[in-house]
Amino acid sequence: MVRLQPDPFLNELTNMFERTTEKGSVWVTLKHSSDKSKVQRNKMKTCGEKIEYRCLVRATDGKKTISTLVGPKDHQRFQASYATILKARMTALRKRERKDKRKAADSDKKEDSKIRSTASKTTN
Questions:
Q1: Are strands 54-60 and 2-4 parallel, antiparallel or unpaired?
Q2: Which spans does this entry mark as compositional bias, Basic and acidic residues (predicted)?
Q3: Within 13 Å of residue 44, how many CA atoms lie on the same side as its CB?
């Protein structure tokens, strides 16, 4: 796994999305992290030091994995850039076909009533 600075990470993420436009997926995960071991965090707590938490962002396309750590100062700018990339690159998504339960039930009722009306007309 390659850990990059936030700006090169966003550039590489854009490249990943471009490579997988025709076929493939990109998985992005965000995780709350302090980038310190549990022992170090416990020592800092006992000493009264403040632990600075960061956001660990990972992205993979199945072949290549990249990651970055985003601090609280850069978080707003990173999120804005990340959102722009996602909006621009998610054009290949297809809308899921949903069958509305009400419409399906209504159409079934209409078909049943038509069959009954034609059956009653033929018996008369």
A1: unpaired
A2: 103-115
A3: 12
The residues that bridge with 30 in the sheet, in sequence order, are 57
Q: How many residues does the chain have?
A: 124
Rounded to whole angstroms, the Cα distance separating 83 from 81 reads 5
Nearest CA to 89 out of 31, 16, 4, 3 is that of: 16
Rounded distance between C-alpha atoms, residue 66 and residue 31, angstroms = 14
The model's pLDDT over 13-30, given as tens digits with 9 standing for 90+, comes to 999 998 888 888 899 999
- Give the single-character DSSP code of 97: P
Q: What is the DSSP letter of 74?
A: T
Q: Could you report the per-residue pLDDT of 79-113, keeping only the tens digit for each?
A: 999 999 999 887 766 777 887 766 666 666 666 66
DSSP 33: E
Shortest CA distance to 12 belongs to which of 76, 1, 95, 22? 1
Strand-strand pairing, 65-70 and 2-4: parallel
pTM confidence score: 0.66
CB neighbours of residue 104 within 10 Å? 10
